[in-house]
Design brief:
globular; heme; 6 helices; transport
Amino acid sequence: MKLPVVAAAFAAAFIATSAQAQDVSAGERSWNKCRACHQIGEGAKNLVGPQLNGLFGRHTGAVEGYSYSSANKGANITWDEAVFAEYIKDPKAKIPGTKMVFAGIKNDKEIADLTAFLKQFGKDGKKM
């Protein structure tokens, strides 16, 4: 195989993988699993769980007006993509004693898509 052909094949595979890495529309569909307990977007309020605007970069137990478990408040976690992925797979394993009653999302692609959807929303609930 000639070098240009190899380079083109590699580039095509990389682009396809990158394009599949995060699908906001699929993440929005996955969000339906979360919306019974959480809100996001302008005007979002705390429900059974805290609103999730500006989740990434926020510390656990930091949403005003939400009554967190002592486990969540004491977890001392800053939410980023890796931490969120670990948490959403099995919330009670990541933060034993959390109030979050959710079986988890085990599929890495679905987690990446949900992450992309959540990352659209700033602290004020507006899409960035």
